[in-house]
Amino acid sequence: MLDAELERLSGHLQALDRPVVAWMVPGVDAGRVASVLGGPIPDSVARWFHWCNGVADAPGQVQDDVNVIPGYTPLSLEEAARMRSAYAGDSVLGDHWVPLLGSGGGDIYAAVWNLGKEAVIAGVLIGEPTEIEFSTVEQMVNLFNRCFEEGAYFVNSEGMFCMSPEKYDEVYERVVGQ
After folding, report:
1. Phi/psi at 123 (nearest 5 deg)?
2. Which of 37, 65, 119, 157 has the smallest number of Cβ neighbours within 10 A?
3. What does pTM read for this prediction?
């Protein structure tokens, strides 16, 4: 279940004593998500924004401090809605989508759906073609959890949140199978 995967993710962040945990903004209800996004939304999108509605600003905060996976921060519902215009015209994203995670450089993980269907997850890397990377939000979060558990995500000796690309690829192959 997605809620259980999100709780596992929070647990991994707490276990690594990641600063983002203290700054995660409490989530919003499904009605608010639908209102801001302007229509019906998949349950998984509502659950994501119920889990976390972005990260509060704090003095001295740096990008690494606010990441829930290496390089990516959970976006607030309002920030995510504002960002959509910057990616308008992307045929993979289509008409019904919202970014969930964003990087400092403009890369995003976005939930993409057709009305009445559950969301898939697209990876948008600046300068690269947009690709569907996960079949569900739950699969994405499960991969993140497995990356923590199998050492693909870690904190290095300087205290920076890092990823081993090789280990990530191995975990991705087992979880997603592509």
Report:
1. -100, 125
2. 157
3. 0.96
